[in-house]
Design goal:
Layout lengths: L6 E8 L4 H13 L1 E10 L3 H17 L4 E7 L4 H12 L8 E5 L5 H14 L2 E7 L3 E2 L5 E4 L3 E2 L13 E6 L4 H11 L3 E7 L6 H4 L12 E6 L8 H12 L3 E6 L4 H12 L4 E4 L2 E4 L4 E2 L4 E6 L6
Length: about 300
């Protein structure tokens, strides 16, 4: 994202009950203009996000020239969400121009699918991630679903090759374990977020995670840095992809999803996998922290 008061043709976001959803939108629209907002919401949480969506309509009206388009998608129907994003963001939509993707409360599967279609459309893509002030000290999400590979980003899994799992870790041990138990990899590489932000040093599961009988390597990444961990992971992913089926997962800070998307587009035999949960804490986070901004060049993958 360049400078203050940039003008975007489209702002893409997913509604949430977290305070940072509306606070982040307001901050974005104070600094940048958008002709149109594509606001998706997850049907399973429609009641929980209804108040925030009503407030978003008021915010949109307060910014003259900004049209708001709301669309429902469901966690349980990834094919429907995929087709919806294709319709709104794919080549036939003629979206072109400049697009700002708000990663803040967007499921990683939606992040990856949106970036796929925006790449196909040749749009100029910037992104923003609004950190919360704090996360709940209690659980954040629980009861993880089975992993699923992302449409068109599922790589090519070759029969007879062992599987390697590369996962950016966060605070959710059960989702990380679900990925390991589901895919039964021969090797695991855990990318562990550095720093003590949001009590990361004590809450990140990466340093202590173990899986019986599976070799686990670790490397440090900074999802809040300039490339969100891409450069730290590029070498290991390239090496693993020579003789393994590589599956990429992100359970850490949302900007790491951008790094994994870049890696998949560079090493297209690799697969992106998403693991949602059946329940998310109503008090998931509070307040508004710093914003992480960036842009993607499709020519270089940067």
């Amino acid at each position: 994202m360049t400078g203050r008061h940039s003008a975007f043709d489209v702002l893409v976001t997913v509604a949430s009950w977290e305070p940072r959803f509306l606070l982040g939108i307001e901050r974005t629209l104070q600094q940048h203009s958008a002709e149109r907002i594509l606001a998706y919401f997850v049907g399973e949480y429609g009641d929980r996000t209804a108040e925030a969506r009503r407030a978003l309509r008021k915010i949109s009206k307060a910014h003259s020239g900004t049209d708001l388009h709301e669309q429902e998608m469901t966690f349980g129907a990834p094919d429907g969400a995929w087709r919806l994003l294709e319709k709104d963001l794919g080549p036939a939509a003629g979206i072109g121009g400049s697009v700002l993707v708000d990663l803040t409360t967007m499921p990683r599967e939606v992040i990856w699918s949106s970036l796929f279609w925006l790449e196909a459309s040749g749009a100029n893509v910037s992104y923003v991630y609004h950190q919360p002030r704090t996360y709940s000290s209690d659980w954040l999400a629980r009861d993880p679903n089975d992993p699923r590979l992302v449409y068109k980003l599922a790589g090519t899994l070759e029969v007879g090759r062992p599987t390697a799992l590369v996962a950016v870790t966060g605070f959710d041990e059960k989702r990380c374990r679900q990925a390991v138990e589901y895919y039964e990899p021969a090797r695991v590489l855990l990318a562990v977020q550095t720093g003590d932000q949001h009590d990361n040093d004590s809450r990140n599961v990466g340093p202590t995670f173990v899986a019986s009988g599976i070799p686990i390597d670790r490397t440090e990444v900074d999802a809040f840095g300039a490339d969100h961990g891409y450069s730290a992971l590029r070498g290991p992913v390239e090496k693993l992809s020579r003789d393994h089926n590589v599956i990429l997962c992100s359970f850490g800070p949302k900007p790491s999803a951008v790094a994994l998307f870049r890696l998949q587009r560079e090493f297209q035999l690799c697969a992106l996998a998403y693991i949602g949960c059946k329940e998310y804490n109503r008090d998931y986070s509070s307040g508004l922290g710093d914003a992480i901004c960036g842009s993607i060049s499709w020519q270089t993958g940067v």
